[in-house]
Amino acid sequence: MGLEDDDGDEDIDPCVEPIEGQDSPAGDEAFDVDREYLQEAKTTWSKAEVKQLMTDLKEHGRGYFINEYVVKRAIPIPRLLYAFGICLCKQLRQKRPKTLLYFLEVAMTRELESREKLPMYNTIDDAVDLIRKSKRIVILTGAGISVSCGIPDFRSRDGLFDIHYFKENPAVFYSFASQIYPSNFIPSPCHRFIKLIEDKGKLLRNYTQNIDTLETRAGVQRVLQCHGSFATASCINCHTRHPGNAIEDDIMNHRVPLCKGCPPIQPPTKPKAKKKPKKKNLSVWEQDDDDDEPDIPAYPPGIMKPDITFFGEKLSNEFDKALIEDRPLRYPYTPSTLGSTNPDQQDTNKAYQSRYRPSWQCR
């Protein structure tokens, strides 16, 4: 990891030293760090305090963690990094708050990506017993349970489910959309298992990345299609929403469905100009091409698109609402919590606000 120096002179490497007794960051090398920092790192946080910090991070997320510990409690970021097993050298401690906040973000990401195994659950019987005793189960599902039904997985960052590519050439998407249209497939045993959990009164919600609505076809009521579905379709121009079956015939026949409320393509009008006398003996490259007709767009602006989330699009508002409903925020974001009377924290607060403003605040 290279970071540009605050003065813009050259790239430097973060000088971090793993704390004794804690895992060192993968790939990091040992650097010389002042002994006083190492000693401080060993005594700043107790094991119970570190556990509480990590619990707050995993339970409430990065935004809450920074707001609570960096903004409200005004704990210096180098001291917080001790809890993550990182001790910054003197050079990096002098970096501007935005850079220090980046260090903390990297540490938080590493912690959130590491999943601790629960030692009490080791066998299938343990899982069955856990399901039997639980009353509010959240089930997360992805492409695996639909691929087993025969649905190909086309969704990739560089694939055909990119919103910009769709707007440029929607015919490519509709050339294969019939292959993933839900009417062609039946739910798998995994879908029916989710329905069974719901029938037992244990399902809090099924969050699925899939767009095939097979959970709904299996009878699951408490399901959220995080990436949308074919259940509805909207015009990318006027945003009018229609039932998904309104474009089913176009999908099955590989046609680009058009919005009936938007105007069709109108041939561009070319203003009449006075004819100029033609020069003789001109080569092909020297001849005037003003008489060429302007290009006509291949498609009108009103193209219908299934309400599925392409790369480049944000998740729906229903996703945010479901998260709040299923797990109420005990520490809601309010502008007043960002204020700090500590002048040393003002720059850090600004960096925090620009990076961690909640999505509903932006909208």
Descriptive notes:
With 363 residues, the protein is α/β, with parallel strands linked by helices. It contains 16 helices and 10 strands. It has helices at residues 35-44, 47-60, 62-72, 77-82, 90-93, 97-113, 124-133, 143-147, 163-168, 170-176, 189-199, 214-217, 248-252, 317-326, 346-356, 359-362; strands spanning 3-4, 11-12, 16-18, 86-88, 137-141, 203-208, 223-225, 228-235, 241-243, 304-308. The chain has a 3-stranded parallel sheet, with helices on both faces. Strands 9-8-10 form a 3-stranded antiparallel sheet, with no helix packed on it. It has a two-stranded antiparallel ribbon with strand order 1-2. Helix 12 (214-217) links the parallel strand 6 and strand 7. The two termini are 33 Å apart. Its cofactor is Zn(2+). This is Deacetylase sirtuin-type domain-containing protein. It is found in: Mitochondrion; Nucleus.
